[in-house]
Amino acid sequence: MEVSKSVSAKIAEYLLQIHAIKLQPENPFTWASGWKSPIYSDNRLSLSHPEVRNFIKKELSRLIIAKFPQTEAIVGVATAGIAPGVLVADELSLPFGYVRSEAKKHGMAKQVEGDIKQGQKILVIEDLVSTGKSSLQAVNSLKDFGAHVIGMASIFTYGFDEAVKAFSDANCEYVSLCNYNTLLSVAVANNIVKENQLELLAEWRNNPSAWRQ
Questions:
Q1: Could you give the CA distance from residue 194 to residue 171 in angstroms, rounded to a whole number?
Q2: pTM score above 0.85
Q3: Cα–Cα distance measured from residue 58 to residue 8, given in angstroms and rounded to the nearest whole number
Q4: N or C: which end of the chain has fewer CB within 10 A?
């Protein structure tokens, strides 16, 4: 099952409406990596909007039931994937845990938190996938722990070729409720960006690391 165009467009509309995603092709943002970008995403803002939060929860849950029916537990990627992961796990009445970027330096020195079992079939939740590097780092940490990762789902993805290849090479099935192309279509329809800005936005999508460097 793929996400329907109407669901993907509704997610894009919501994220733009609450300014969880901002588009500024003429006044780009600077990411932590140093990349210049016409887009900035902070999907954690959706948590402050019940209508948006509930729509995301229900659509992620439907997607998991349809595409990953064998799921035995939900694991969120710290930190932004924790909240949507909890919401989905609650909706599906499944166990929940989360995975840190690295093990704690104290206490039990855990990297995987929660009562997650070795061999358990895990569906990983992310809020956003960019290059896929940190997402797949979380997947590998879960595999090292002994969990059986069956796939990953996210709220939004930029759809970089680098990420598509990374997930393919890692043999990790991945789906997202919304993507960059859908976002641009919705942004144009709602006069958030102009048709004549689409070429500039496409240039970034095709070569983000070199854009305006």
A1: 38
A2: yes
A3: 13
A4: C
